[in-house]
Each structure stands twice: as C-alpha cells, then as structure tokens.
Amino acid sequence: MLFNSLDFAIFIPIVFALYWLVPNKNFRAQNLLIVFASYVFYGWWDWRFLSLILFSTLVDYLVGVQLINQEKPIKRKLLLWVSILVNLGFLGFFKYYDFFLDNFICAFSFFGMEIETSSLNIILPVGISFYTFQTLSYTIDVYNRKLNATKDFISFAAFVGFFPQLVAGPIERASNLLPQFYKKRVFGYHKAVDGLRQILWGLFKKVVIADNCAEFANLIFNDSSNYSGSTLLLGAIFFTFQIYGDFSGYSDIAIGTARLFGFNLKQNFAFPYFSRDVAEFWRRWHISLSTWFRDYLYIPLGGSRGSTWMKVRNTFIIFIVSGFWHGANWTFIVWGALNAIYFLPLLLKNKNRSNLNSVAQGKLLPSFSELFKIVITFGLTVFAWVFFRADNLSHAISYLSEIFSSSLFLIPYLLWKKEVFITLGLIIFFITIEWLGREEQYAIAKIGWRRRRAIRHLFYYILAIMIFWFGGQEQEFIYFQF
Amino acid sequence: MKKFVFKVLSFLSFLLILPLCILVLDPFDYYTHSYRLRYDRIHIVRQRNVADWALSEVEKISKDLKSKSTTIAIGDSRGRVLISNGFENGWKGRILERGSDILYDLNFGGAHLEESFSLFDREIVNCPNVKSIIITLPIDRLINMPYNRNRIQSSMFNSNTPNLSYLTNWSQLGYFLTKNKAGPSFKPKDPKVWEKIEKQFFTIFEKSRRSVFNANLADFNSEILELNRNDKYKIIIFIPPYEPIFFERITANFGDDYEYFLGEIMNLPYTVYNLQKEIDKFDFVDPVHGKLKKGPLTDLLN
C-alpha cells in the first residue's frame, strides 16, 4: 500500500479510529491491532511475503528469549549467528542472488569458461532491507546486553512490522521503539496535529517535488545519449531533488503517521542539501541507516581509531556496504566508493566533525563562505547521484562524460518547456521553505506554533491544493526497491 | 480526540470543495476515463485532439492485443482508407495476407512516425500477439513535415496528470474546441485571440526529439529496426493514396523529391504497397477525409 494512494487514505482513518476506540486504551489490544493493520498494509502489496516477516519475527523473538538466560559466550554467539544468518540469508537470497550469479558467470567467461545457468528472476520483497536491519539491531543489542530481550511476542511483532516505517524506514532501534509498545499511549491533540502537519509536508515532498522531478529525470536519464551536457546536468539535478523528496517525504509521512498513534520515531533526514561538507551530509542523510552502519559495522571494525590504513579501510567498507545495501548493482557500489573518496580527506585531516551545528544558525542567510561550501557539497552529491540513478556503469560514465563536454554550455533542450519552469519554481519554493525551517525536526514544524492560525491554515491549504493538482500519477517510492 | 477529529473534518470539507466541483463538473472530461471509450472519433477529436483519440483506441483494443493475433496500422490518417467502409477494393485483405488476422487502425491525423512509434511504445510493444505492423507513410511527409511536435507524448502526460492539465493551455484550447461543437462558425470576436489559439495548437505539444525524419530515410529505417529489435514483427510500408487534386499539388511542389523518395522506399527491405500508384486510374475520393466539415478548426485538426 502506498502512502500516496487512495487505499492508504481509506486505511489510515479506519485504523486510527479503531486504535483510539479500544476500551480503556488497552495497550496490548492496541499492539495487536497494530500487528494486524501492519500485516494488512504489507499484504496489500503481496501477501505471500508476509511469511518472511513472520518467520524473521519469530526467529529473532526466540533468539532474544534464549539470550535472556544464556550466559555461556559460545552459545550466546551461536544464537547471535542464527539470527544474523537467517536475516542476512533471506536478504542475500532475495536481493543479491541474481547479482552474484551474473557476476560469477561473467568472471568465469572472462577466463574463457562458459557456465550454463539461468537466473531465478527473484521478486524482491518490499522493505526487506529495512525490517531485516531493524530486527538485527534488536538481536545485536540484546547480545551486547544493551537491551533487555522482550517476552511479549505481540509487542515484538508490532515493533518489527510497525506499518508506518515497515517498508522504507526509518530503521528504528529497538531501544527507542520497542519500549514504546510496553506502555499505555495517550492521545495528545498537539502531537496528532504535529503528525498530520508532517504527513502533509511529506506528501508535498513526494507528490509535488519528487514525482514532478521524476518526470524529467526519467525522460533525460532514459534517453541520455540524445541530450546535451547541459540537459544531462539538469536531469541529474532533477534526480537529486527527486530522490530527496521521495525518500525524506516517505520518512516524514512515516514519522507523522506514527505520531498519530502516539509513537515517536527518530528524525531520518536533517536538511542534507544544506550541508557544508560530505561528512555533514552523511550525518543528515538517511540518518537511521548511517547510524546503523556506524554502530554495528564501523565501530566494531575499529572506527576512526588505529592507523591511517585502518581508517581508510573502515571508511571504504562502510560506504561500499552502504552502497551495496541500496541495490545489487555495481552502480551502487561505485556510488558508495565515491562517497568514501569524498569523505576520506575530511577524516584524515580530522575535519569530519567540524560542522556539527545547523548552517547559519539563528541567521536568515548564510555567509558567502557557507554558501560556497554548500554549493560545492551539493555539486559533489549531484555527481555521485548519477551513479546511483544510471542503469549501469557505462551509462553513468557516458552520462558524466557528456556533462563535462563542450555541450555543457548549450542551452538545455528541455528548458523551453513550461512544465520544466513550473518544476524549477516548485523546487525553489521547496528549498526556501526547507531553509527557513532547517533548525526544526522538519521544515514546517515551527509554522505550527509561531504563526497565526489564519496564516497557518492558508499555508496548509496551499500545500494541500498543490498536492491535489500535481497528484494525478501515483508513483512508487524509490526506496521500496531497496 | 473529538476536537482533533472535528478540526480535521472541517479542514478537509473546505479543502474538498474545489476538487469535488472539478470532479463532478469535469468540464474537459479529464477524469472520465470511460469518456474516451464511449464517444466516437469525431467527438473526441473535436473536443480534445487526435492523439487522445489514438490513445483511447489503444485502451479499447488492449484486451484483444493480448489474446488475438493482430496487425497494427500506425501512421498518418491517410492510412485510414484501409478500414473505411466505403472503400471496396479489398486492400485490407491483400495487405494482411492472413485472413485470420485482425487489423487495428491507429492511424491518426497528421501523425508522423515518431508520434506513431511513441504510441506503439506505450503498450503495444509488450503484446505478444502483434504479428505485423503496417506503417502508413505519405511521401510528402518525408519531404515537408509541417511541425516538429509529439502529440502522443503530450496526451500521455495529460492523461497521467489530469489535475495538472487544468493549469495548462489545454484547458483554454479545450474550451474553444468544446464551444466549436455549436458550429464551425464559432470564433472569438477578437482575431488576435484566434491567432493565439491557432498558435497554441502547435506549441502545446511536446517537442519531438528530432526533426521527425525529414528527408532522412536512414533515421526512419533505424527507428524501424529499433522498433523491431528482435525481428518480431512483419513490417509493411503502406504508401497511401491521395485524391487527384492533392496529388497534383504534391507532385507540382515536390515532384523530383517525390520520385527520389519513392524509389528509396521501394528499396527498403520491407514489403511496400504503393496504393497511390493504383488509384490513379480510379477517380479516387478519400472516404475518410472527405467527411469532415471544412472550417478553421477542422482544418487545424485534420
């Protein structure tokens, strides 16, 4: 079920009403309802893959319960590996089997050996990368004694399958989300209004910004050999806003929806395109995934401690694995490696934590130096996104080669189109609102308490009308494929 | 809780007034999907445009395309003589060569090949039972293409984003076209407005990716090869007939070019039917194009 669909518009009020009408706000009954609703939400896409979630939930629940009383390190480690192998096994099979098989065949044919085999054309279950990482974090935290395992299966199933963030995150840590299922939720008017406001902003990002940018990004990327460098650059910029609007929009809707049900999810995007360096970008982009890799991969590997070689190795590992997490394609691996290359100089010069605060804090405009850094970081990001979006490596390279040719100085072919002007206007509007709200959890959070009611409502109506106008085509969220 | 629900409903009720009005009234039939299937070609062409009609045809036949062995005719509306009732020479039977095949005619007014290929790419390309493609190729279109627009792309965009369509020039044009149903004599009082509308008719469409194969058979051929990547379809080129008066005009203006391109087309590695050659001896009357009433709008649409 898509957040930007009529199905969801009908589903959410029904679940909301049932949830808050549960007698005496019995939280166990509410949890049960969440599990049921989450499985309906997921099964709407393909009910067969519910069995995967159920199995993964059951395995991690049982591993957790066993870990409670198990003191022997070897047995504890064995239990941990059961969970890791089951979860990563599913992920590896559904997501990476064909990739490895194809590359295996390629490698053998390179040495003149032909292997007769066929790929399985496996369907990738929606959201498998997200809920797998979420359940893994639970088992690892329990193993490391950072979290007490739960014996309440319904709460655990609700934690794994919580529908607002089930299919595209944020990847919640058990230490943050699971305890919220143990206690009674109280309906809070302001919290619910805040949730709706964030949903509205998320829908705007998705339907108005991402889907409009997608129209032109797809047009240009799908036929890139016929366009000039300037048009291709325009296409890359459109994709840059498409992916941000799409994914951060989804996160906003997820967080807002969770708030309607009395839950607090963590911020997943913190205005990454206003970053002054790549390290800051990665602290602001897909925060739940970055911190997951930091805590469960980077730090166990040694993090930024040790020799220079260790730092370089760990940085490359974390970025390449992060790239590979996004998809079984060399383009994602190169995208990850490219970001590692961006990040390394900052790490080696100990400048990777020099921009921890929000840009131009307390000021209306950035300084010239800040603006310059933002533009440079944005340019590097756009460059890397080309690899992320391209069909394959040769497509990405030919795309970038054309951008860096003399045709970069031609007038972009599509610029005459009125729809392109409208989309560029929307992007400027979007950037302005994001800039003004960059110190909040989401861009329009402060309009809720700083502005007069009439202005607030007018603004909401403008957003809602724009969503209506531009909402003709239901497009899937990009991150569903990951 | 009650306060929250009340406020949400109040907000939504006010918000829904405008979209509800548009949905209920739907002045340009953007939402009424069945509209396209309910009305005939002339109706759609008058109210919207020929590319919309072609898209609606694809919708109509999409079920058959998946289940029956079919032949698709794409290209300029001159190719519509293949299926016209008033035309008895049995060309359809001759060209199809296979009596069991069903011919679907997706030729539409002024369609150049890129438009036709866009239409084909939309859905037909995935249908396993399409056996052959008849490409209607009026030679004068190769020599003298009047515009460089892709109306199919525009129609796809409009059909995918009906809400947005209300903000585009389409609405204005649609209004005048709808008004035109009252009679071909309808015109705005101010001639400048009319000029603007006429101009818009050509500018509202997506720009074609290239110069629509103008005088370039190599481009045309490579596009066919792309269309028929796996040698899946039998390709038939159909040179449509013109009424003598039009044909004389073409030969007078482009005589040498006409002969040159005719020779080149006949040498293409496809089955080519030159119907123009055969109708010279009959005092040919185009059974399709003669039916539309003449007037400023029908001239534009035709």
Low-confidence blocks of residues of chain B? 178-185, 291-302
Reported CATH architecture of chain B: 3-Layer(aba) Sandwich
Order of strands across the widest beta sheet of chain B? 2-1-3-6-7
Helical amount among residues of chain B, as a percent range? 40-55%
Helix- and strand-based class of chain B?
alpha/beta
Mean pLDDT of chain A: 84
Low-confidence stretches of chain A: none
Structural class of chain A: mainly alpha
- In the CATH hierarchy, the third-tier topology of chain B is known as Rossmann fold
User: How far apart are the first and last residues' alpha carbons of chain A, in Å?
Assistant: 16 Å
The profile of the biggest β sheet of chain B is: 5 strands, parallel
How many domains of chain B? The number is: 1
Describe this structure in words.
The complex is a heterodimer of chains A (482) and B (302). Chain A is mostly helical. Chain A is 67% helix and 0% strand. The longest helix of chain A has 38 residues, at 73-110. Chain B is built from 16 helices and 7 strands. Chain B has 302 residues and is an alpha/beta fold. Mean pLDDT of chain B is 68; it is low at 178-185 and 291-302. In chain B, helix 6 links the parallel strand 1 and strand 2 (102-105). Chain B has helices at residues 2-15, 17-25, 33-38, 41-47, 50-67, 91-96, 113-122, 139-143, 151-160, 162-165, 169-180, 191-203, 217-227, 244-266, 275-279, 296-301; strands spanning 70-75, 102-105, 130-136, 149-150, 206-207, 234-239, 271-274. Helix content of chain B is 53%, strand content 10%. The chains are: A mainly alpha (482), B alpha/beta (302). At the A-B interface, helix 8 and helix 18 of A face helix 1, helix 10 and strand 5 of B.
